[in-house]
Amino acid sequence: MHDVRHILVPVDLQQHTERLVEFALRIADKLGAQVTIAHVVEEVEYRSDYDSASFEEFEARIRAEAERKMAAVLKQCPRSSPQCTGTLLFGRAADCIVAFARDNAVDMIIMATHGAKGIEKILLGSVADRVLKRAHCPTLVFNPYRGEQGYQVTLNPENSR
155: domain range? Predict the structure, then answer.
């Protein structure tokens, strides 16, 4: 078993992002790991019957908004986590997350689930589920909808090096 030195934290920049990042940073701090927070900007399918100029403008607005939100997330990272970086990825979420993890020596992925149920999960699928099945490294799925939110991450002194 090898040490966890690099943790990837995919975020959707929605309501639970802050909670997920805080949780992941606590784990990274205990492990002495670097954290990369990543957001995937999903590709918008271009159709030839739309005006390409308005399509490009729409896509530019989506990217600019993602950059703004990512900067805000990174600004919230405590100064005690200097190895916390962020990146925007472009494409299909699960594909981008798995590829980034593989190509950047990621040792663990910590991501949230949306808690989709029923027809929503059948129609949309689950990014977390697809990443979990395809990732080369351990993947921890954080459920922001369940249980007590005051998680405490500690190391057992008897098990530490």
Answer: 1-35+48-81+139-161
Edge to edge, what strands does the sheet with 84-90 contain? 84-90, 34-41, 6-11, 108-112, 139-142
C-beta of residue 148 within 8 angstroms of C-beta of residue 117: no
pLDDT at 93 exceeding the cut of 70 = yes
**Where is pLDDT greater, at 155 or 14?**
14
Query: Strand 84-90 and strand 34-41: pairing?
Result: parallel
Closest to 25 in 3D by CA, of 98, 68, 102, 78: 78
Mean predicted confidence (pLDDT) in 94-122: 84
Tally the domains of the chain: 1
> Is 70 among the domain residues?
yes
Q: Is residue 41 part of a domain?
A: no
pLDDT value for 34: 93
> Is 21 a domain residue?
yes
